[in-house]
Each structure stands twice: as C-alpha cells, then as structure tokens.
From TrEMBL:
It catalyses: beta-D-fructose 6-phosphate + ATP = beta-D-fructose 1,6-bisphosphate + ADP + H(+). One of its GO terms (cellular component) is 6-phosphofructokinase complex. SUPFAM superfamilies: Phosphofructokinase. It is found in: Cytoplasm. This is ATP-dependent 6-phosphofructokinase. Residues 2-298 form the Phosphofructokinase domain. Belongs to the phosphofructokinase type A (PFKA) family. Mixed-substrate PFK group III subfamily. The active site is at D131. The record marks G108 as: Important for substrate specificity. The lineage of its organism: Bacteria, Bacillati, Actinomycetota, Actinomycetes, Micrococcales. Mg(2+) binds at N107.
Length: 345
C-alpha cells in the first residue's frame, strides 16, 4: 500500500512528531510505502512529494514547524467538492500511485477527509490545531505548546505590569474557540480572561480591572482574538481576508487597552502574541500525543479503518468516525467558563 501524507491549514507544533510516528509504524512495521506531499494540496496537485522512510524522519520530533510544509491551497477547484472534483482527486491519485491519504489538520482538513471517504477515497485523519477546537478528541497536538508559550508571556508581562502599575492586555489566538485563552489565563493567574464564546461588556471588564487595583494589584487581561463585546460583532482591525475568505482577526487587544485606560484612568498596554504561539519546539506532551496519533493512524490503515480520526479519549487513542465529527466545532462549555469567571477581578 502506498499512502500519501499531507498537511493542510496552519502549522502546529508536533506535526513532525506525528509524521515520524506514522512513518516508523507504517513503513517499518506494516511495510507500507509512504510519501509526503509538499505544502499540502499544492504538492498533490503538482506532483511535488518526497519519499518517507526511517532516514527521512530521523530526528524531526523535537523540531517546530513541519518538514513537508503546509498551506491553505484547496483540494478542489473553487473549494467545491463536486462529483467531478472528487473524481479528479481519485484520478490524480491513480496517476501518482497513491492508494490512500493520511491527512494532518484541523476542522477543514478533517471535513475534507470525510468528503473523500464518502466518495470512496480512503483517508485517515490526524488531529492538529493549536486552537483545540476539533471535535472527537480531548486534545489536539500543538495546543499544549501554544498554551505554554502564552502562559510564559503572561508571567513576563505580569512583572513589567506590576512594576509600572499598568493593566497589561495579552491577545492570544482563538477565532471561534477560547481554549488557548482559557487555559493560559488559568495557568498564568490572569485576573480577566475573555473568549469568543461568551461576550462581556466593557463596563464589566473595567469593573474587574478596578477591583484588582483596589486590592493594590495590577491587572493582567487575556483576550482571544475572536472575542467580541456584548452586543457587538467581532472586532476587525486588519484589512483583507484569510485563506478561507474570512475577515482577518487580530488586534482586539489594541482596541481594548485604550478603552480600559479611558474608562478607569489606569495606564494600559496591549501585546499581541500572534504567530509566536505556533513557533518553536513542541512540548513533551505534544510530541508524545502526536507520535501516538501517527502510530494509531498507521495501525488503522493496516486494519482498513478508513474514514476515522485518531482522537485522544482520556488516556487512550481511539479511532473516531469522521462522519461523527466533521464540521463540528468544539467550543468552551458554559460551565468551564463560569467556574473561571467567578475568580475574575
């Protein structure tokens, strides 16, 4: 069997470890041939790939980024999974001698994997995204690293904020789900954490900041990029669209900090963490999780369990049907947010 490994969407720490786990199990144990397409679907369309064997993946687990590259190039023309487009994918696979896909990605990628499966094209998914918003798995690899980086940033901002009696506002990633902000806020002891799922008014935010000042402390506010004020739309301060045609987010902290300063009289400063969250070496947790999902994906291919995702359930990797989770967004539930919200201020 010849399996094509393909990464799509944003990069995420741990992707190299996932590739290594899949190749060592798939090639060395099950006797597969495996190739990696460069830069996601671009490599598939253009026939740009590399052979994957033990030598090719040697020493890559601790490395950030992804050896194959990734992109938001769509798998289908115009992004539409028409019957003709799906037949074109199957025909291209035959030209390249590919029997199946192993797709490493988040919601969009796994939705594509499910569409391919329904069309009779064999595919298995590995769950990566720093946002941790993919259904079917307790954690996605890359998330723990992003949270650790954000928590370290909180620690550093807190010391300078306390020195100047400033309110420090840290913006982290999270368009639709606030998992990074929530967990980093807890880890760093932030006095306020703002996430897309639960809008808050500027009045409430300022009340929390003032409460912190009245105790003789300086506030640390963590805000996800997709947060919106109560009764308002998402705040967009950057021009243009992203790879999925959505407005580019980022900059809510630069809107929030001046509002806090204006309404409370407390000097406020904004920091946008941005792509720093994606970079650098993955944590040990992400390396282990990614390796385990890669191994599980190769085992599933050997067993013919196509149309499944290697998801973490408790401490076990289970193959979850893509039909049950494709297109489903895993957001922060109300009870998780409320238990943290009670500590704000």
């Amino acid at each position: 069997m010849r399996i094509g490994v393909l990464c799509s969407g944003g990069d995420s720490p741990g992707m190299n470890a996932a590739i290594r786990g899949a190749v060592l199990r798939g090639v060395e144990v099950h006797g597969f041939e495996m190739v990696g397409f460069m830069d996601g679907w671009r490599g598939f369309h253009e026939g740009d790939f590399v052979e994957l064997d033990r030598l090719a993946v040697r020493g890559i687990s601790p490395l950030g980024g992804v050896m194959l590259g990734t992109s938001r190039v769509p798998p289908f023309p115009d992004g539409k999974a028409t019957p003709e487009a799906l037949r074109a994918v199957a025909a291209r696979m035959a030209e390249l001698g590919i029997d199946a896909f192993m797709l490493i990605g988040g919601n969009g990628t796994q939705t594509v994997a499910e569409l391919l499966t329904r069309a009779g094209i064999r595919a298995i998914g590995l769950p990566k995204t720093i946002d941790n918003d993919l259904a079917g798995t307790d954690y996605t690899f890359g998330f723990d690293t992003a949270v650790s980086i954000a928590a370290e940033a909180i620690d550093r901002l807190r010391t300078t904020g306390e020195s100047h009696r400033r309110c420090m506002v840290l913006e982290v990633m999270g368009r639709d789900a606030g998992w990074i902000a929530l967990n980093a806020g807890i880890a760093g002891g932030a006095q306020v954490t703002l996430i897309p799922e639960f809008p808050e008014s500027i009045e409430q935010i300022c009340d929390w900041v003032l409460s912190v000042r009245d105790r003789g402390r300086s506030s640390l506010v963590v805000v996800a990029e997709g947060f919106a004020f109560d009764g308002a739309d998402q705040v967009v301060v950057r021009e243009g669209l992203d790879g999925f045609g959505r407005p580019r987010l980022g900059g809510i902290a630069e809107v929030l900090a001046p509002l806090i300063e204006q309404r409370t009289g407390i000097e406020a400063r904004a920091t946008v963490l941005g792509h720093v969250q994606r970079g650098g070496s993955p944590t040990a947790f992400d390396r282990v999780l990614a390796t385990r999902t890669g191994i599980a994906g190769a085992n599933a291919a050997q067993e013919g369990a196509w149309g499944t995702l290697a998801g973490l359930r408790g401490d076990r990797i289970e193959m979850v049907p893509l039909s049950e989770i494709a297109g489903e967004l895993k957001t922060v539930p109300a009870d998780r947010y409320e238990e943290v919200r009670l500590t704000f201020g």
